[in-house]
Amino acid sequence: KMNCSNCGKSIPAERAEIFSTCVKCTKQTRKIGFMEYSHKTAPALIMIDGDDKQSLELARRAFNRER
Length: 67
What we know:
Elements: E1 2-3, E2 10-11, H1 13-16, E3 31-36, E4 44-49, H2 53-63
């Protein structure tokens, strides 16, 4: 196990392989994924920044097929 570089708390080994900070100290924003069905059998995964409210609303409406 490794410790967070900011607060010193223990980080799980899986997270420590990629990040040097704990979840509470991270500066990265979360991503949200939506499936876009532009074709009947071939959906595409669309990743959106969790802080972008306008894109999230558009993606949610497209996912729910709202007009």
